[in-house]
Write a structure and sequence with these properties.
Elements (H helix, E strand, L loop, with lengths): L1 H15 L7 H12 L4 H13 L7 H13 L3 H13 L7 H14 L11 H12 L4 H13 L5 H4 L3
């Protein structure tokens, strides 16, 4: 994982222009290399690049793909991003139960002292509660059950063939 961390760092430098000439496509190349080794931060940043369409063509389906890989490994910001995608129907069919489940996981996983999580659990909870306001009690109960039963996966379990 040390190589993946180095690739992520190099990708970040290219993508943001930190110490090198800014070149988004080169940053994305390095993030992709790290992401394919299971590096969740790289998976998140690839998802965000696809979502924003910066340095690469905007593609919500690809954003969901990369967010999901990191979210399944227990990354709170990607659980939040995936929940928002399910709420809005961007890159996936709109599914409030899945949105609530992923947002609930983000609330329980988020660490307010972790500098890599851009939001605190309170803001994640506010997003989840806004989704819940659109749901029936039965849908909320189903989402809560799914969240209770969810277990993080290892990269070996997730790795695409």
């Amino acid at each position: 994982m040390r190589l993946a961390r180095a690739q992520y760092t190099l990708g970040h430098r290219y993508y943001t222009g930190d110490g090198v000439q800014r070149y988004g496509a080169e940053g994305i190349k390095w993030w992709r290399l790290a992401a394919k080794q299971g590096h969740a931060e790289s998976q998140h940043d690839l998802g965000q690049a696809y979502y924003d369409g910066i340095g690469i063509a905007q593609d919500y389906v690809e954003a969901v793909k990369w967010y999901r890989l990191a979210a399944e490994q227990g990354n709170a910001k990607d659980q939040h991003s995936l929940g928002v995608m399910y709420d809005s129907g961007q890159g996936v069919a709109q599914d409030l139960v899945q949105a609530h489940m992923w947002l609930s996981l983000a609330v329980s996983t988020a660490n307010p002292y972790d500098a890599t999580t851009p939001f605190d659990p309170k803001s994640f909870a506010e997003t989840r509660d806004a989704v819940a306001a659109q749901m029936t009690p039965a849908q909320i109960a189903e989402a809560q059950r799914l969240a209770r039963e969810w277990k993080p996966k290892t990269w070996e379990e997730l790795k695409p063939e």
